[in-house]
Design a protein that fits this description.
This protein is an alpha/beta fold and 260 residues long. The chain has two domains: 172 residues, Rossmann fold (3-Layer(aba) Sandwich), CATH 3.40.50.300; 67 residues, no CATH class. The protein has a six-stranded mixed β-sheet, sandwiched between helices. Strands 2-1-4 form a three-stranded antiparallel β-sheet, covered by helices on one side. Helix 5 links the parallel strand 6 and strand 7. Helix 3 packs across helix 4, helix 4 packs parallel to helix 5 and helix 6 runs antiparallel to helix 7.
Length: 260
């Protein structure tokens, strides 16, 4: 096992936007090299919690502690991937990935790292392509390659596949699972899709309706790359997750209807 790895420990994390309580008393540990998936009904605070874990947002109360050491070649300890691919249209695939390395590495080392992550994400043959020439799935792969280029100790993903059509998402999910396994970084993954959750997560954290609290934590102690759509044990866990979320999701939907 590597001597490097980031462990995130949340103690009593609470957050409010003015009078609106978003999260309440969250205790959680994300272990080094594991994928922690955050699920729950709309408005439960998943993205808020991700922002707090990534240091983009300070909690109203409680704290997040980062334990462990990052590797010497890590340029960003915590790195985000969002729904929006956020690629620069005037840069090639290689140029978009290199953006996060400019002014930080010598040219030769930068080029070598870009080549490495493009190969890792299956984009080696598309280095000189323009974003407009790529499918949605390919563009998201570029976003992931760019995040991996800094060799983060923790990768934070906010519904990275949600903007894709179902077929593209399913195809990319298999590749993404293998990629996460190879990268071995601590990963925090937010999704509404329970199929994604059981496919990728080592631990799946179920948040309740707002204010979000930890309702349950499910562990799946199987290699991510060895899982497949249709696995009976994964389907059983997915059904249990939906049972936990269903009533809160229905209540959240009714609340949205009431405000329409």
């Amino acid at each position: 096992m590597s001597d490097f790895g980031l462990r995130l420990v949340l103690s009593g994390v609470t957050h409010a936007y003015g009078d609106l309580s978003a999260l309440e008393d969250i205790d959680l540990v994300a272990e080094p090299g594991e994928v922690t998936v955050l699920v729950g009904p709309s408005g439960c605070g998943k993205s808020t919690l991700l922002g707090i874990m990534g240091g983009m947002l300070a909690p109203t109360a409680g704290r997040v502690t980062c334990e462990g050491e990052v590797a010497p070649d890590c340029l960003n300890a915590l790195t985000y991937v969002f729904q929006d691919f956020a690629l620069l249209p005037w840069r090639t695939v290689a140029g978009n990935v290199a953006l996060v390395l400019e002014d930080r590495l010598p040219r030769a080392e930068r080029d070598a790292r870009v080549h490495e992550v493009l190969a890792l994400t299956g984009l080696g043959d598309f280095a000189l392509a323009w974003p407009r020439q790529l499918s949605g799935g390919m563009r998201q792969r570029v976003g992931i390659a760019r995040a991996l280029a800094v060799r983060p100790a923790c990768l934070l993903l906010d519904e990275p596949l949600s903007a894709l059509d179902a077929q593209t998402r399913d195809l990319l999910l298999d590749e993404f699972a293998a990629l996460i396994e190879r990268a071995g970084t601590t990963t925090i993954y937010v999704t509404h899709n329970l199929g994604e959750a059981v496919r990728l997560g080592h631990q799946i954290v179920v948040l309740s309706r707002r204010p979000g609290k930890v309702r349950a934590i499910h562990r799946i102690d199987r290699p991510v790359a060895g899982r497949a759509v249709g696995d009976a044990d994964l389907q059983a866990i997915e059904a249990e997750l939906w049972r936990l979320i269903r009533d809160d999701a229905a209540a959240a939907e009714r609340a949205l209807d009431d405000t329409a």
